[in-house]
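User: I'm putting together notes for a lab meeting next week and I want to include a structural view of one of the chains we've been expressing. I don't have a solved structure, so I'd like a prediction I can at least talk through. The sequence is below, exactly as it appears in our construct file.
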Amino acid sequence: MTVLALETSCDETAVAILRGSNGDSAAELLASEVASQIAVHEKYGGIVPEIASRNHLVHAPRLLERATCDAKIEMSQMDAFAATSGPGLASSLMIGASIARGLAIGFNKPYLAINHLEGHLLSPFFLSASHREAATTGDGAVRRNVSLIVSGGHTMSIFVRSLADYQLIGRTVDDAAGACARRRSETF
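Assistant: Thanks for the context. Below is the predicted structure for the 188-residue chain, given as structure tokens.
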């Protein structure tokens, strides 16, 4: 299965094309393109949601073209289109989801809504076969584990029972580790 995925949950626009494996090996990353908006938001001292979403509209077409070129694949050859569905900035999420849904409808393919944080939890399965082996049992089920997510405004400790069966152990209430690290680096 070949999937084109868009990530627009905050201030970066990303497009990736992945080819799924038969379960014996890692998924193959055919293309990965990212456009950052750090310089755009720097003068405001933080991310401005409206500016972020407008910039996704500017960057996405170019990244889509570069990704399909790098992967040497046509849009019509995709088996599905995916986009981050949340959490994130609503106006930014809407851009990626609208593009992916439009492509899915246009090419009569499935649309996959991806939870940004669940993506972090499942990322070991897209690494090498040895990473996948360590993260799963002999029959391919996810091993029970405790995961730490530090992403944007989210810092969470999560107990993973199995695929799609998670329990929140704890999270920050008023600040995220990433934001603290950024402010500290700005101080220096």
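A couple of points you could mention at the meeting. The two ends are 47 Å apart (CA to CA). The chain has two domains: 2-129, 136-188.

User: Perfect, that's what I needed.
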